[in-house]
Protein backbone atom coordinates (compact mmCIF):
# COMPACT_ATOMS: atom_id res chain seq x y z
CA UNK A 1 0.00 0.00 0.00
CA UNK A 2 1.24 3.48 -0.84
CA UNK A 3 1.45 5.19 2.51
CA UNK A 4 1.50 8.67 0.99
CA UNK A 5 -1.82 8.11 -0.78
CA UNK A 6 -3.56 5.95 1.81
CA UNK A 7 -4.93 8.99 3.64
CA UNK A 8 -4.06 7.67 7.08
CA UNK A 9 -1.07 7.04 9.29
CA UNK A 10 -0.48 4.65 12.17
CA UNK A 11 1.67 5.87 15.06
CA UNK A 12 2.89 4.18 18.20
CA UNK A 13 2.63 6.22 21.40
CA UNK A 14 5.09 4.11 23.38
CA UNK A 15 8.54 5.13 24.50
CA UNK A 16 9.72 1.57 25.29
CA UNK A 17 10.72 -0.93 22.56
CA UNK A 18 8.87 -3.79 24.27
CA UNK A 19 5.56 -1.98 23.79
CA UNK A 20 5.92 -1.31 20.05
CA UNK A 21 5.66 -4.99 19.08
CA UNK A 22 1.87 -4.92 18.76
CA UNK A 23 2.03 -1.73 16.67
CA UNK A 24 4.50 -3.39 14.28
CA UNK A 25 2.29 -6.46 13.91
CA UNK A 26 -0.72 -4.28 13.10
CA UNK A 27 1.11 -2.19 10.50
CA UNK A 28 2.51 -5.33 8.86
CA UNK A 29 -1.01 -6.70 8.48
CA UNK A 30 -2.20 -3.37 7.06
CA UNK A 31 0.74 -3.10 4.68
CA UNK A 32 1.74 0.36 5.90
CA UNK A 33 4.76 1.77 7.63
CA UNK A 34 4.70 2.92 11.22
CA UNK A 35 4.50 6.71 11.42
CA UNK A 36 7.71 8.58 12.16
CA UNK A 37 7.62 10.00 15.65
CA UNK A 38 9.84 10.21 18.71
CA UNK A 39 8.42 9.60 22.19
CA UNK A 40 10.83 9.72 25.11
CA UNK A 41 11.34 10.71 28.73
CA UNK A 42 13.54 13.64 29.55
CA UNK A 43 15.92 13.55 32.51
CA UNK A 44 13.28 15.25 34.69
CA UNK A 45 10.76 12.50 33.74
CA UNK A 46 8.70 14.79 31.52
CA UNK A 47 7.33 13.16 28.36
CA UNK A 48 8.47 14.66 25.06
CA UNK A 49 6.78 13.91 21.70
CA UNK A 50 8.00 14.93 18.25
CA UNK A 51 6.01 14.18 15.08
CA UNK A 52 8.53 13.72 12.24
CA UNK A 53 6.17 13.91 9.23
CA UNK A 54 3.21 15.92 7.99
CA UNK A 55 -0.22 14.72 9.14
CA UNK A 56 -2.29 17.66 7.91
CA UNK A 57 -5.79 16.64 6.84
CA UNK A 58 -5.18 12.92 7.48
CA UNK A 59 -6.77 10.28 9.68
CA UNK A 60 -4.34 9.18 12.38
CA UNK A 61 -4.47 5.95 14.39
CA UNK A 62 -2.48 5.97 17.63
CA UNK A 63 -1.65 2.53 19.03
CA UNK A 64 -1.01 2.57 22.76
CA UNK A 65 -0.41 -0.53 24.84
CA UNK A 66 -0.24 -0.09 28.60
CA UNK A 67 2.97 -1.29 30.33
CA UNK A 68 3.49 -1.43 34.07
CA UNK A 69 4.09 2.34 34.22
CA UNK A 70 0.44 3.19 33.54
CA UNK A 71 0.59 6.90 34.24
CA UNK A 72 3.50 7.45 31.85
CA UNK A 73 1.61 5.57 29.13
CA UNK A 74 -1.48 7.75 29.69
CA UNK A 75 0.58 10.94 29.42
CA UNK A 76 2.26 9.66 26.24
CA UNK A 77 -1.14 9.06 24.69
CA UNK A 78 -2.50 12.46 25.72
CA UNK A 79 0.57 14.36 24.53
CA UNK A 80 0.87 12.62 21.15
CA UNK A 81 -2.88 13.11 20.55
CA UNK A 82 -2.55 16.80 21.35
CA UNK A 83 0.55 17.10 19.15
CA UNK A 84 -1.37 15.57 16.23
CA UNK A 85 -4.34 17.83 16.90
CA UNK A 86 -2.18 20.95 16.78
CA UNK A 87 -0.55 19.58 13.59
CA UNK A 88 -3.99 19.75 11.91
CA UNK A 89 -4.75 16.02 11.70
CA UNK A 90 -8.30 15.50 10.45
CA UNK A 91 -9.29 12.58 12.73
CA UNK A 92 -7.34 11.11 15.65
CA UNK A 93 -8.36 7.57 16.59
CA UNK A 94 -6.87 5.85 19.61
CA UNK A 95 -6.26 2.10 19.45
CA UNK A 96 -6.09 1.22 23.16
CA UNK A 97 -6.52 -2.58 23.49
CA UNK A 98 -6.50 -2.42 27.29
CA UNK A 99 -8.16 0.74 28.59
CA UNK A 100 -6.35 1.84 31.77
CA UNK A 101 -8.21 2.69 34.99
CA UNK A 102 -11.17 0.64 33.74
CA UNK A 103 -11.54 -0.96 37.17
CA UNK A 104 -12.11 2.49 38.67
CA UNK A 105 -15.42 2.96 36.90
CA UNK A 106 -17.65 2.99 39.99
CA UNK A 107 -17.86 5.31 42.97
CA UNK A 108 -16.09 3.92 46.03
CA UNK A 109 -16.63 5.74 49.32
CA UNK A 110 -15.21 9.26 48.89
CA UNK A 111 -13.16 8.42 45.81
CA UNK A 112 -13.86 9.31 42.22
CA UNK A 113 -14.75 7.65 38.93
CA UNK A 114 -11.28 7.92 37.43
CA UNK A 115 -12.31 6.15 34.22
CA UNK A 116 -14.70 8.98 33.38
CA UNK A 117 -11.97 11.54 34.11
CA UNK A 118 -9.63 9.75 31.67
CA UNK A 119 -12.36 9.67 29.01
CA UNK A 120 -12.79 13.45 29.34
CA UNK A 121 -9.04 14.00 29.15
CA UNK A 122 -8.75 11.97 25.94
CA UNK A 123 -11.53 13.98 24.32
CA UNK A 124 -9.90 17.24 25.38
CA UNK A 125 -6.54 16.11 23.99
CA UNK A 126 -8.09 15.65 20.56
CA UNK A 127 -9.18 12.02 20.18
CA UNK A 128 -12.32 11.61 18.07
CA UNK A 129 -12.81 7.83 18.32
CA UNK A 130 -11.25 4.88 20.16
CA UNK A 131 -10.88 1.19 19.48
CA UNK A 132 -10.51 -0.95 22.59
CA UNK A 133 -11.08 -4.54 23.63
CA UNK A 134 -13.13 -6.18 26.38
CA UNK A 135 -13.80 -3.17 28.60
CA UNK A 136 -14.06 -4.17 32.25
CA UNK A 137 -17.64 -2.85 32.24
CA UNK A 138 -19.45 -2.20 28.96
CA UNK A 139 -21.14 0.84 30.50
CA UNK A 140 -17.77 2.62 30.37
CA UNK A 141 -18.61 3.49 26.75
CA UNK A 142 -21.14 5.98 28.13
CA UNK A 143 -18.31 8.06 29.64
CA UNK A 144 -17.11 9.11 26.19
CA UNK A 145 -18.40 11.95 24.06
CA UNK A 146 -17.22 10.21 20.87
CA UNK A 147 -17.67 6.72 19.34
CA UNK A 148 -16.15 3.67 21.03
CA UNK A 149 -15.65 0.29 19.35
CA UNK A 150 -15.33 -2.35 22.09
CA UNK A 151 -13.93 -5.39 20.29
CA UNK A 152 -13.99 -8.94 21.71
CA UNK A 153 -11.12 -11.35 22.24
CA UNK A 154 -13.36 -14.35 22.91
CA UNK A 155 -13.15 -15.80 19.33
CA UNK A 156 -9.35 -16.06 19.66
CA UNK A 157 -9.50 -17.59 23.13
CA UNK A 158 -12.19 -20.04 22.05
CA UNK A 159 -10.02 -21.04 19.10
CA UNK A 160 -7.11 -21.64 21.47
CA UNK A 161 -9.26 -23.93 23.62
CA UNK A 162 -10.39 -25.93 20.60
CA UNK A 163 -6.90 -26.28 19.10
CA UNK A 164 -4.52 -26.33 22.07
CA UNK A 165 -6.41 -27.91 24.99
CA UNK A 166 -6.17 -31.71 24.69
CA UNK A 167 -9.54 -33.43 25.10
CA UNK A 168 -11.31 -30.10 25.59
CA UNK A 169 -14.65 -31.90 25.24
CA UNK A 170 -14.02 -33.17 28.75
CA UNK A 171 -13.63 -29.61 30.05
CA UNK A 172 -15.97 -27.46 32.10
CA UNK A 173 -16.07 -23.65 32.04
CA UNK A 174 -15.72 -22.09 35.49
CA UNK A 175 -16.72 -18.64 36.75
CA UNK A 176 -14.59 -17.85 39.80
CA UNK A 177 -17.33 -15.56 41.12
CA UNK A 178 -21.04 -15.04 40.39
CA UNK A 179 -20.22 -11.72 38.70
CA UNK A 180 -18.24 -13.61 36.01
CA UNK A 181 -21.05 -16.10 35.33
CA UNK A 182 -22.38 -14.36 32.21
CA UNK A 183 -19.00 -14.41 30.49
CA UNK A 184 -18.46 -18.04 31.49
CA UNK A 185 -21.93 -18.99 30.26
CA UNK A 186 -21.16 -17.47 26.86
CA UNK A 187 -17.98 -19.58 26.56
CA UNK A 188 -19.80 -22.71 27.72
CA UNK A 189 -22.63 -22.29 25.20
CA UNK A 190 -20.26 -21.71 22.29
CA UNK A 191 -18.10 -24.73 23.17
CA UNK A 192 -21.12 -26.89 24.10
CA UNK A 193 -19.59 -27.50 27.54
CA UNK A 194 -20.87 -27.53 31.10
CA UNK A 195 -20.73 -24.56 33.47
CA UNK A 196 -19.63 -24.28 37.10
CA UNK A 197 -19.80 -21.22 39.36
CA UNK A 198 -17.72 -20.63 42.48
CA UNK A 199 -19.09 -18.67 45.41
CA UNK A 200 -17.98 -18.13 48.96
CA UNK A 201 -15.14 -16.86 51.11
CA UNK A 202 -12.30 -17.65 48.70
CA UNK A 203 -13.57 -15.20 46.09
CA UNK A 204 -13.21 -11.45 46.56
CA UNK A 205 -15.65 -9.67 44.28
CA UNK A 206 -15.11 -6.04 43.37
CA UNK A 207 -18.76 -5.33 44.18
CA UNK A 208 -18.19 -6.38 47.80
CA UNK A 209 -15.71 -3.62 48.53
CA UNK A 210 -16.73 -0.89 50.99
CA UNK A 211 -18.48 1.84 49.04
CA UNK A 212 -19.50 4.18 51.85
CA UNK A 213 -23.14 3.22 52.10
CA UNK A 214 -22.64 2.50 55.81
CA UNK A 215 -20.81 5.75 56.52
CA UNK A 216 -21.67 7.33 58.92
CA UNK A 217 -22.43 4.19 60.98
CA UNK A 218 -26.06 3.09 61.02
CA UNK A 219 -27.54 4.06 64.38
CA UNK A 220 -31.07 4.60 65.52
CA UNK A 221 -30.47 7.99 67.10
CA UNK A 222 -29.64 10.30 64.19
CA UNK A 223 -30.28 13.54 66.03
CA UNK A 224 -33.51 14.15 64.14
CA UNK A 225 -36.63 13.34 66.19
CA UNK A 226 -39.02 11.07 64.38
CA UNK A 227 -36.43 9.85 61.81
CA UNK A 228 -35.49 6.20 62.37
CA UNK A 229 -33.65 4.33 59.62
CA UNK A 230 -33.62 0.52 59.56
CA UNK A 231 -30.32 -1.04 60.57
CA UNK A 232 -28.26 -2.44 57.70
CA UNK A 233 -27.32 -6.08 58.19
CA UNK A 234 -23.66 -6.84 57.52
CA UNK A 235 -22.76 -9.22 54.70
CA UNK A 236 -21.41 -12.64 55.57
CA UNK A 237 -20.21 -14.94 52.82
CA UNK A 238 -20.99 -18.64 53.04
CA UNK A 239 -18.22 -21.27 52.99
CA UNK A 240 -16.71 -21.87 49.57
CA UNK A 241 -19.08 -23.62 47.22
CA UNK A 242 -18.63 -24.91 43.67
CA UNK A 243 -21.96 -25.13 41.89
CA UNK A 244 -21.35 -27.78 39.24
CA UNK A 245 -19.42 -31.05 38.99
CA UNK A 246 -15.74 -30.59 38.13
CA UNK A 247 -14.58 -34.07 39.18
CA UNK A 248 -12.39 -35.73 36.55
CA UNK A 249 -12.69 -32.69 34.26
CA UNK A 250 -10.46 -29.98 32.83
CA UNK A 251 -11.44 -26.73 34.56
CA UNK A 252 -11.20 -23.58 32.42
CA UNK A 253 -11.58 -20.35 34.40
CA UNK A 254 -12.51 -17.35 32.20
CA UNK A 255 -12.26 -13.66 33.05
CA UNK A 256 -11.45 -10.36 31.37
CA UNK A 257 -8.42 -9.28 33.46
CA UNK A 258 -5.82 -11.25 35.38
CA UNK A 259 -3.77 -8.93 37.56
CA UNK A 260 -3.42 -9.88 41.22
CA UNK A 261 -3.62 -13.66 41.01
CA UNK A 262 -4.39 -14.60 44.62
CA UNK A 263 -8.08 -15.20 43.79
CA UNK A 264 -7.18 -17.37 40.80
CA UNK A 265 -4.67 -19.39 42.85
CA UNK A 266 -7.25 -19.96 45.59
CA UNK A 267 -9.87 -20.96 43.02
CA UNK A 268 -7.45 -23.43 41.40
CA UNK A 269 -6.75 -25.09 44.75
CA UNK A 270 -10.47 -25.51 45.45
CA UNK A 271 -11.05 -26.97 41.98
CA UNK A 272 -8.20 -29.45 42.51
CA UNK A 273 -9.76 -30.48 45.80
CA UNK A 274 -13.08 -31.01 43.98
CA UNK A 275 -11.42 -33.40 41.51
CA UNK A 276 -10.40 -31.26 38.49
CA UNK A 277 -7.21 -32.72 37.06
CA UNK A 278 -6.06 -29.72 35.01
CA UNK A 279 -6.62 -25.98 35.48
CA UNK A 280 -6.57 -23.42 32.67
CA UNK A 281 -7.11 -19.68 33.02
CA UNK A 282 -8.28 -17.67 30.00
CA UNK A 283 -8.20 -13.87 30.21
CA UNK A 284 -8.05 -11.05 27.68
CA UNK A 285 -5.71 -8.70 29.54
CA UNK A 286 -2.69 -10.20 31.29
CA UNK A 287 -1.50 -7.41 33.59
CA UNK A 288 0.15 -9.93 35.94
CA UNK A 289 1.42 -7.35 38.42
CA UNK A 290 3.84 -7.72 41.33
CA UNK A 291 4.61 -11.39 42.17
CA UNK A 292 1.94 -12.83 39.86
CA UNK A 293 4.36 -14.91 37.70
CA UNK A 294 5.94 -16.53 40.76
CA UNK A 295 2.58 -17.26 42.38
CA UNK A 296 1.30 -18.84 39.18
CA UNK A 297 4.43 -20.97 38.81
CA UNK A 298 4.07 -22.28 42.38
CA UNK A 299 0.29 -22.84 42.18
CA UNK A 300 -1.99 -25.62 41.00
CA UNK A 301 -2.66 -23.65 37.79
CA UNK A 302 -1.38 -25.48 34.73
CA UNK A 303 -1.70 -22.87 31.97
CA UNK A 304 -2.56 -19.15 31.85
CA UNK A 305 -3.64 -17.91 28.42
CA UNK A 306 -3.77 -14.16 27.76
CA UNK A 307 -3.75 -11.96 24.65
CA UNK A 308 -1.09 -9.45 23.65
CA UNK A 309 -3.20 -6.40 24.51
CA UNK A 310 -0.70 -5.73 27.33
CA UNK A 311 3.08 -6.35 27.09
CA UNK A 312 4.04 -9.29 29.31
CA UNK A 313 7.26 -10.68 27.89
CA UNK A 314 9.10 -10.27 31.20
CA UNK A 315 6.37 -12.21 33.02
CA UNK A 316 6.59 -15.03 30.45
CA UNK A 317 10.32 -15.37 31.10
CA UNK A 318 9.57 -15.72 34.81
CA UNK A 319 6.71 -18.19 34.31
CA UNK A 320 6.61 -20.66 31.38
CA UNK A 321 2.97 -21.43 32.19
CA UNK A 322 1.92 -18.12 30.57
CA UNK A 323 0.87 -18.43 26.92
CA UNK A 324 0.00 -15.63 24.49
CA UNK A 325 -2.71 -15.34 21.83
CA UNK A 326 -2.20 -12.72 19.11
CA UNK A 327 -5.17 -10.37 18.51
CA UNK A 328 -3.44 -7.98 16.09
CA UNK A 329 -5.59 -9.38 13.26
CA UNK A 330 -8.88 -7.99 14.58
CA UNK A 331 -7.29 -4.65 15.54
CA UNK A 332 -5.84 -4.25 12.05
CA UNK A 333 -9.19 -5.15 10.46
CA UNK A 334 -10.96 -2.61 12.67
CA UNK A 335 -8.52 0.10 11.53
CA UNK A 336 -9.02 -0.82 7.88
CA UNK A 337 -12.82 -0.83 8.14
CA UNK A 338 -12.99 2.48 9.98
CA UNK A 339 -10.72 4.18 7.46
CA UNK A 340 -12.71 2.82 4.50
CA UNK A 341 -16.06 3.65 6.08
CA UNK A 342 -17.11 -0.01 6.17
CA UNK A 343 -19.48 -1.59 8.67
CA UNK A 344 -17.98 -2.98 11.87
CA UNK A 345 -20.79 -5.53 12.22
CA UNK A 346 -18.65 -8.32 10.75
CA UNK A 347 -16.29 -8.08 13.74
CA UNK A 348 -19.22 -8.57 16.13
CA UNK A 349 -20.96 -11.47 14.41
CA UNK A 350 -22.50 -13.93 16.90
CA UNK A 351 -21.52 -11.58 19.73
CA UNK A 352 -24.24 -11.13 22.33
CA UNK A 353 -24.74 -8.45 24.97
CA UNK A 354 -23.37 -10.77 27.68
CA UNK A 355 -20.07 -11.45 25.89
Write the layout of secondary structure elements.
Layout: H1 3-6, E1 8-12, H2 21-30, E2 37-41, E3 47-51, E4 59-63, H3 70-86, E5 91-96, H4 114-125, E6 129-133, E7 148-151, H5 154-164, E8 171-175, H6 181-191, E9 194-199, E10 241-243, E11 250-258, H7 262-273, E12 278-286, H8 292-297, E13 303-307, H9 313-318, E14 322-325, H10 328-340
Parallel strand pairs: 1-4, 4-5, 5-6, 6-7, 8-9, 8-11, 11-12, 12-13, 13-14
Antiparallel strand pairs: 2-3, 9-10
Helix pairs in contact: 2-10, 3-4
Brief description of this entry?
By secondary structure, the chain is of the alpha/beta class. The chain is built from ten helices and 14 strands. Helix 3 packs parallel to helix 4 (114-125).
How far apart the termini lie comes to 35 Å
Quaternary structure state of the chains depicted: single chain
Mean pLDDT: 88
Low-confidence stretches: 1-5
Biggest β-sheet: count, sense, barrel?
Answer: 7 strands, mixed
User: Rounded to an integer, what's the Rg over CA atoms?
Assistant: 22 Å
What do these coordinates show?
The protein is an alpha/beta fold and 355 residues long. The protein has ten helices and 14 strands. It has helices at 3-6, 21-30, 70-86, 114-125, 154-164, 181-191, 262-273, 292-297, 313-318, 328-340; strands at residues 8-12, 37-41, 47-51, 59-63, 91-96, 129-133, 148-151, 171-175, 194-199, 241-243, 250-258, 278-286, 303-307, 322-325. Strands 10-9-8-11-12-13-14 form a seven-stranded mixed sheet. The protein has a five-stranded parallel sheet with strand order 1-4-5-6-7, with helices on both faces. Strand 4 (59-63), helix 3 and strand 5 form a beta-alpha-beta unit. Helix 2 (21-30) crosses helix 10 (328-340) and helix 3 (70-86) packs parallel to helix 4 (114-125). The longest helix has 17 residues, at 70-86. The radius of gyration is 22 Å and the shape is globular. The relative contact order is 0.13.
